[in-house]
Amino acid sequence: MDTIVALSTPLGRSGIGVVRLSGDSALEIAGKLTVGEEEFEPRHATLSSILDSTSGEIIDEAIVTYFKSPNTYTGEDVVEISCHGSPVLLRRIIDLCLGLDARLAEPGEFTLRALSNGRLDLSQAEAIRDLIDSNSIAMTRQAVRQLRGEFSHTLQPLKDKLLDVIVVLESALEFVEDDLPEAQTAKIAGDLRSVAGELGKLASTYSAGRLLREGLKVALVGRPNVGKSSLFNALLGQDRAIVTEIPGTTRDQIHESFTIRDIPVSLIDTAGMRETVDTVETIGVERARRAMADADVVVVVLDGNEELTLEDREVLDDTEDLSRLIVVNKTDIADSGSLVESLRENDWRVIGISAKTSNGLDELQEAIVGPFSPEDIESSGFLVSDARHHDLLKRAKDEIESSIPLLEGGTSEEIVLVGLHNAIRYLGEITGETTTEDMLTRIFQTFCIGK
User: Among 97, 158, 221, 345, which is 20 to 30 Å from 295 by CA?
Assistant: First the structure.
């Protein structure tokens, strides 16, 4: 197989940059890049001088590490060149490799080769991507569990049990003229219900897994000058949004991310909701309405130092059918208790806070993530976090459940087997055993180059 090369560390200046080669010619190319006749021993780091073959000059001192197939990440010969992290230098080394008949790797191609060579299955490959992209410790833990094969190991006995049923039905179709005995049919139906139940349990973890993977979208909305931007800054712990006494200061959305109890939160500060003739502000208000519709949680901010205005009531009406939390701000300068209590009479979730003093922020953060059961996430086992995996588990479960009444009703084994074969194919797509080339291409296009 041809030899590929790519930068495996992030773009930009750094102390160290790593250029990775994989393929039949990886060791040969490394030898031509270095000065002298170094013998690169497997799994030994060798200090080498990198030679620019076009100018004959030494361009860097680097650590070259050789990994011999098949016991490597990709299953092929792999060479990693750890040199100084100058973008110009790294680009030059890659160009020299390309001049020695390597080619630039496609996104995720190193991991795709690992999959092709049996070093890992597809769910483990996707876990590598999730581990790199993880933005919380909890998501990192889940990705590591999947990378170590926990998902695959959980699925394997279910696939084995399903295959055992398929073998029995295929044999009956080929060799048995009479119908299956009632006792055997009952046992097969019981096995299928057991498999479907376990698949359902796995699929049911997706809501928690998706929360870890994608996080919550939280939009701060309200009329101008109620303290949305001050609250935005207070939650982030930094002065990210401009705060002034001038109404309409925020004219566009501001996005920042942080975590609450290991749950990633994408926080959105929106333009003040009001009628305006200002063209730019009008666009901001429309974007605020879209942010409201897309958010998992809408935080309506009210000014505790003032009576409810017509604009406040309009915002409350517009958000009534959404997942909403009402915040009464400026409790440090106002007696907002009566407003909080009056709003709670409507069975609304209401919290009094001060963005200036941070009073009530802890309660607000708990209220944001509370309905999403972070306790369950922290105490749970493996969670399905990928939408593709969830969809395939659901499909497999549905196919099995639809086959059970056909089996119990005496339908031909040939008809029953259609759904069971579909189910085993769906489960195989999770681990890559039955995944199409087009699907693999789409999955690995989401990887970074060099991994």
Answer: 345
**Domains in the chain, start-ordered, CATH in brackets?**
4-105 (3.30.1360.120), 124-205+384-444 (1.20.120.430), 215-373 (3.40.50.300)
Peptide bond into 107 cis (omega under 30): no
Q: What is the pTM of this model?
A: 0.77
Q: What is the DSSP letter of 381?
A: -
pLDDT along the chain (451 residues), means of 10: 92 92 94 80 92 87 94 95 94 94 93 92 91 85 90 93 89 69 85 95 89 86 84 79 51 76 84 65 74 85 84 85 87 72 79 86 87 61 90 96 90 89 93 76 80 81
Could you write out the three-class secondary structure of 102-158?
Answer: CEECCCCHHHHHHHHCCCCCHHHHHHHHHHHHCCCHHHHHHHHHHHCCHHHHHHHHH
Distance set, CA 70 to CA 74, 118, 451 (Å): 8, 10, 18
Give which of 143, 146, 76 is closest to 114, Cα–Cα: 76
Helix (H) or strand (E) holding 366: helix 361-369
What counts of helices (H) and strands (E) characterise the chain?
17, 12
Counting every residue, how long is the chain? 451
pLDDT for 277 equals: 55
| pLDDT (0 to 100) of residue 18 | 96
What is d(CA 43, CA 58) in angstroms, rounded to the nearest whole number?
25
The Cα 328–Cα 207 span in angstroms is: 30
The pLDDT assigned to 25 comes to 94
Residues 385, 209 contacting (CB under 8 angstroms): yes
- Strands 324-329 and 254-260, by their bridges, are unpaired
Q: Where are the alpha helices (DSSP H) in 20-62?
A: 26-33
